[in-house]
Design brief:
This protein has 323 residues and is α/β, with parallel strands linked by helices. Helix content is 23%, strand content 24%.
Length: 323
């Protein structure tokens, strides 16, 4: 027997929470389903991560986010969204995985690892942090390779290669170096990324120029071995002694789920899901997209600060449908 809902929100991140708040205001019978912890992506961010945005840009539904710093950190964000969810008594099921979503007449059938639901409307707000972009090189499956970074301590006194030149790569490289790791960066581009936080970019450039952190630009890993890594550089093939590889090459939405549901994706490499920007409704009537998932492979297009408005847009359109 299925449980019937007006709205099911898939994804318990900041935008999923914002959607839940809109449902709560309207007394809809809704449920948020999250496969991990509350704001699971934020929880998996590095422990010492600082946001680029100021706290007011991370606020949802005009609920004040008070930070002790000009730029809030991971722990402050977790505390903020946790308090928003608990103080508003939002209906959220954690550690429950959505297995399938099927359209049945005018309703949706949602199967999860724990239950079957029927819902009039579905909002997908699943983000993109769970599926890393792979290097697709031999040895990437070795235990010493990670596509996530939590903290620097395990890498103290180790030879560490950090792949990439984004905010996450730069933060990891600097922190590991400061905690006593021997850091080498392997970067496909010709320079440190322009989107790197403005107060951090000069720091990493100076560390590279002084030789504290080694960097290979216009370079790629071609093989990972137990004790070293083979890198293709403009000056030829280099064999670099190595204990750990931290490959922070970015992440992508769950395109497999989107395709299985029937959401159309653009045929170019951006893989943009189809939706109406005025209502956020996808090509499947009654199924909405919210947050960074709307950007497909353009994972730098949508953030909390510019996609939190999606919740209100969706709620207004659903209101016109349910009433």
């Amino acid at each position: 027997m299925s449980l019937e809902k007006d709205v099911i929100i898939i994804g318990g991140g900041p935008i999923g929470i914002a959607c839940a708040l809109e449902c709560e205001k309207r007394d809809w019978n809704y449920l948020v389903i999250e496969k991990g912890a509350l704001t699971n992506s934020l929880f998996n961010y590095p422990k010492n991560m600082t946001f680029f945005s100021t706290s007011e840009k991370l606020e949802i539904d005009d609920i004040p986010f008070i930070s002790n710093n000009p730029k809030p950190n991971r722990d402050e964000a977790l505390e903020y969204y946790r308090r928003v969810a608990t103080s508003n008594k939002l209906n959220i099921n954690l550690y429950e995985t959505v297995l399938s979503i099927e359209k049945e007449d005018s309703n949706f059938k949602i199967k999860t690892s724990k239950q079957v639901y029927t819902s009039k409307k579905v909002i997908l707000s699943t983000g993109f942090y769970d599926i890393p972009k792979l290097l697709n090189v031999p040895g990437e499956d070795l235990p010493k390779v990670s596509h996530y970074y939590k903290e620097a301590h395990p890498f103290t006194m180790q030879n560490v290669i950090v792949v990439g030149a984004s905010n996450s790569s730069v933060d990891a490289a600097l922190e590991i170096w400061r905690k006593g790791g021997n850091v080498t960066m392997v970067i496909r581009g010709k320079a440190i990324g322009e989107r790197v936080k403005y107060w951090v970019r000069p720091d990493i450039i100076n560390r590279i120029e002084e030789g504290s952190i080694k960097a290979y630009y216009n370079s790629e890993i071609i093989e990972i071995k137990e004790n070293d890594v083979i890198v293709s550089t403009p000056k030829g093939i280099k064999t670099i002694p190595n204990d750990y590889v931290v490959a922070l090459t970015g992440y992508q939405p769950d395109f497999k789920l989107l395709k299985e549901i029937g959401i159309k994706l653009s045929e170019d490499d951006k893989m943009l899901p189809k939706y109406n920007s005025e209502t956020m409704e996808s090509n499947i009537p009654g199924l909405y997209l919210a947050g960074v998932i709307c950007g497909g492979m353009e994972t730098h297009k949508w953030f909390i600060e510019n996609s939190r408005i999606h919740a209100k847009i969706i709620a207004e359109h659903i209101k016109s449908q349910l009433n």
